[in-house]
TrEMBL record:
The keyword Transferase applies. The keyword Transferase applies. One of its GO terms (molecular function) is acyltransferase activity, transferring groups other than amino-acyl groups. InterPro entries: Acyl_CoA_acyltransferase (IPR016181), GNAT_dom (IPR000182), MshD_Acetyltransferase (IPR050276). This is GNAT family N-acetyltransferase. Pfam families: Acetyltransf_10. Residues 4-148 form the N-acetyltransferase domain. Keywords: Transferase.
Length: 148
């Protein structure tokens, strides 16, 4: 999508980002977020920005995607429900892969079949199963290792 701009996170987009993130996650796992909207904004603005790089995908100043990552892990990757399947996730993931040390891990909920298909197409493989998340839902740990 040529009209999608990828840019580093800026706090002016915090509320819009969290609204998109929550809607996308709710659609993916079929339950509302366990945290309040305000706590989620605080998590983004104060906690994630300290530990991770964050990139946003914008279309006409609307947040349509987010990736939260560092050199060995993807912490979050969400695409607006109306913009999934358009290559935005591919572009965001490519940035994390490029800036990685050649290996990335991430978790996704077992019920999130769309995410599993996406990550597997991107070369990720399931390395373990568990449920070490706040939602107490079964999840998969995925890993990607560069072929270079």
């Amino acid at each position: 999508m040529d009209n999608v701009i990828i840019m580093p996170y800026h706090p002016k987009y915090a509320e819009q980002t969290v609204a998109m993130w929550r809607k996308s996650k709710e659609e993916a796992i079929g339950q509302e977020d366990i945290h309040s909207f305000e706590n989620h904004v605080h998590f983004l603005k104060e906690i994630l920005v300290e530990k991770y790089k964050i990139e946003l995908a914008l279309m006409n100043e609307e947040v349509v995607g987010i990736i939260v990552y560092h050199v060995s892990e993807i912490n979050q990757l969400y695409i607006h429900v109306d913009y999934q399947g358009m290559g935005i996730g591919n572009r965001l993931l490519a940035i994390a892969k490029e800036r990685s040390k050649g290996k990335l891990s991430l978790y996704t909920f077992q019920k999130n079949k769309k995410a599993q298909r996406f990550y597997e197409k991107q070369g990720f493989k399931i390395v373990s199963k568990g449920h070490q998340n706040e939602e107490k839902l079964p999840d998969f740990k995925y890993e990607w290792i560069s072929q270079d």
